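Recall the central idea of this unit: under ordinary conditions, the amino acid sequence of a chain determines the structure it adopts. In this exercise we apply that idea directly, starting from the sequence alone.
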Amino acid sequence: VLGEGDPLVFIPGYQGSTEFWQHSFDPLASRYRLLFVDALGFGRSPWPDTSPTLEDHLGALRRTFLAQGAVRGVTLVAHSFGTLLAAYYADRYPEEVRRLFFLGSPVFTDEADARKRLREISPIAALFSLNPLLAREACMAMCAFRPLLEAVLPRLKPDLPGAVVHDAVLHNWPAADGALRILLTRPIAEPLSRIGSKVTFVHGTADGITPLARIHK
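Accordingly, the structure predicted from this sequence is:
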């Protein structure tokens, strides 16, 4: 938590943490109260024993917002999977959320479309989404070797900030499984149709998840 003023809340994407933002937005603390959160089951938030549902995520966000007094004039800044959580949260509490900024939004029409997009952009991600047993075993292996991965991964991904890579393994299987289920089955278009012009999309022309034409649509 930084600064004072109307709340500006940052929600990272899948496997992300507060480190994703790399302190880039800290200067806004001169005008806003900045709240950086980890989604339920990721980073340094509580890790669940069972796969969190969308309701679980929204409930965790709600408890956090209430605890921090972020219930009026809220701005949400979210990335990737975080945009889904932000959209459904804003739909549920429309009078509290003033505006939303979405970075790299995953826009799928349905589960079949989501799986098709995953196959196109990442065969490994698609394999995990289609084979929960394989995904679970891989995630369990990551958990078993987490100390080693925390040390090695930043060296294997020198193009990414070390802290971001380090935190990408800070989750367990239920958290990963629950988030993937939400990503596949809860289209963002549903809450967006009710939120309307509060949303500003920040989207790269070469984004691998969602083509720019779909964002315009």
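Strands lie at 7-11, 33-36, 74-79, 97-103, 199-202.
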